[in-house]
Amino acid sequence: MIKEIDAFDLQTRIAEGDDLILLDIRSEGELAQGVLPEAQHLPMHLIPLRISELPKDKDVILYCHSGARSYHACAYLAQQGYENTINLRGGILGWARSGYQLETRLAS
Q1: C-alpha triplet 94, 51, 39: angle, nearest 5°
Q2: Is 74 a catalytic residue?
Q3: For residues 24 and 63, is the Cβ–Cβ distance under 8 A?
Q4: How many domains would you assign to the chain?
Q5: 62, 64, 86, 88: the active-site residue
Q6: Per-residue pLDDT tens listing for the chain (108 residues)
């Protein structure tokens, strides 16, 4: 069972100062479209290589463009024993359609 959160509930958690990590798993080129405030970037293909960097003691919210890739990434992480990953339903598209803030970030 993959846990999911929608844009409204995520915005509420951010506004309340919840201790969580936002993880943008899109490709480098997609970052130009905007990112969620305070998000960290870890392209999906690097998750298996850098999985040890992800904490198990706080919620990690994964997102991509539409929510499909991040759903699969959450499923992969669940198979690796991560019970604290949550997929942003609708991805950054759903976030933007809900009228929430995006930051612009230059590709690193």
Answers
A1: 35
A2: no
A3: yes
A4: 1
A5: 64
A6: 899 999 999 999 999 999 999 999 999 999 998 999 999 999 999 999 999 999 999 999 999 999 999 999 999 999 999 999 999 999 999 999 999 989 987 555
pTM (global) more than 0.90: yes
Q: Is 48 within a domain? A: yes
- Is residue 18 one of the residues assigned to a domain? yes
Among residues 40, 35, 68, 65, the alpha carbon closest in space to that of 54 is found at: 40
Range of the domain at 61: 3-97
- How far is Cα 8 from Cα 13, in angstroms, rounded to an integer? 9
102, part of any domain = no
Q: Which residues does residue 22 pair with via DSSP β-bridges, in sequence order? A: 61
Domain harbouring 60, CATH code: 3.40.250.10
Enter the tokens of residue 46: 């690097």
Does any domain span residue 47? Answer: yes
